[in-house]
Write a structure and sequence with these properties.
389 residues, alpha/beta, seven-stranded mixed beta sheet
Length: 389
């Protein structure tokens, strides 16, 4: 494969890649050694200096995540909040959107279970939540979305990349419609960050969320919430508030910070925050376009060769696809295929209908086997999976 990526160096930075075929990057990737070293170094400083003292001493390293993320997303550093996960980020954004009984929320069919729980709770409060159908290709139907939009729609919630079929939805086109309708646009890019270019201005989102542990190759327990500065004064109160996110201005009043840090708590995963900053810079140094190109070639090969095996059905949908490759094997439950692969040193996952009711259930699927291909993977990793299947 012709690639500008220095694969030898990257695999040296990824010691686990020598022992296993790690194709579970859509679940949790292998962090590169510089990320692990940064986390361990921070914890060692806490061991010797104390927590508050280390935070003060390492302020520049802690703040690096805001600058690196701003470059990744093409936004300003003060539009970035550090959280514990994509789910945490999603809830913080969703809870701040003012929704009253009778308001409408439009959501895609690819919403992950966390997002679905928030939408179901909104229904319980009298908010009307409608699911936008997919077209024949499994992509959010933009014509149907147009027909569903009205003045009561206050929020559009979209999962950028389906975790259960790898479809890349046209988020920018949805963003255009949200702006025209005057609705907030909350974009879950959990499976897109780290494998696809993300530009919040092109996407037109008011919020964008992702986790550090997946294609970003950051530590677990880390996440990002982008919040467009121009929408902050339209938000309502949020239960996610402490002395980091707000100022207690008098015994009876408080004021949220005027930037995205209004979504942060003072107590954070400080070592993980440094690690996510290093992971983000690591991806930027390689180049997101180069990463996306290599992933596309590897995933395309895996998708094609799986489809050629008797009894295997590739379950991916969409016109634009990515590094997530899903499939089933006739006569074998997804969990059994997952276990057989794991027993032979191939890491994948097997998301079930409980993770994606609006996607898997209508297709009559209880679960799928999911491989998440990343740029550090090799053809030998794919061969290991194909041989077992």
């Amino acid at each position: 494969m012709n690639s500008p990526i220095d694969l030898e160096r990257i695999r040296t930075d990824t010691p686990g890649a020598a022992d296993i075929a790690h194709l579970n990057n859509a679940g949790s990737s292998l962090p590169p050694r510089p990320v692990v070293d940064a986390v361990v170094h921070y914890l060692r400083l806490e061991e010797r200096m104390g927590g508050y003292e280390t935070a003060a001493h390492q302020a520049d390293q802690l703040d690096a995540v805001y600058d690196a993320t701003a470059r990744l997303l093409n936004c300003q550093p003060d539009e970035v909040a550090f959280t514990t996960s994509a789910s945490d980020s999603w809830w913080r954004a969703f809870s701040a959107v003012p929704l009253a009984p009778g308001d409408r929320v439009l959501a895609g069919r690819s919403e992950f279970q966390t997002n679905a729980f928030g939408l179901l709770q909104a229904r319980e409060r009298g908010v009307q939540v409608d699911i936008v159908p997919h077209d024949a290709d499994g992509v959010i139907d933009l014509e149907a979305l147009d027909a569903m939009l009205d003045e009561r729609v206050k929020l559009i919630s979209l999962t950028h990349v389906s975790m259960s079929n790898g479809c890349v939805h046209p988020a920018a086109a949805v963003g255009e419609r949200a702006r025209a309708a005057g609705a907030f646009f909350l974009l879950d890019s959990c499976q897109a960050a780290g494998q696809l270019p993300l530009d919040v201005h092109q996407l037109g989102c008011d919020f964008l969320v992702y986790t550090g542990r997946k294609f970003m190759r950051g530590p677990r327990g880390t996440g990002i919430l982008y919040a467009r500065s121009s929408v902050l004064d339209r938000l309502g109160p949020s239960p996610f508030v402490d002395g980091r996110s707000a100022h207690w201005s008098s015994p009876d009043t408080y004021e949220f910070l005027p930037q995205a840090q209004r979504f942060e708590f003072g107590e954070q995963n400080y070592a993980g925050k440094v690690g996510l900053g290093v992971a983000t810079q690591y991806a930027l140094d390689i180049g997101i376009d180069a990463i996306a190109q290599r992933i596309a070639v590897l995933a395309g090969r895996l998708r094609s060769e799986l489809a050629a095996i008797d009894g295997v059905e590739v379950r991916d949908e969409g016109v634009e696809q990515c590094g997530i490759v899903t499939f089933t094997v006739a006569g074998h439950e997804a969990k059994a295929v997952f276990q057989a692969l794991q027993d032979r040193g191939v890491n994948v996952s097997a998301p079930g209908v409980h993770n994606a009711q609006n996607d898997l259930a209508p297709r009559g699927l209880d679960a799928v086997v999911r491989a998440g291909v990343h740029y550090f993977n090799t053809d030998a990793d794919l061969d290991s999976l194909l041989t077992v299947v």
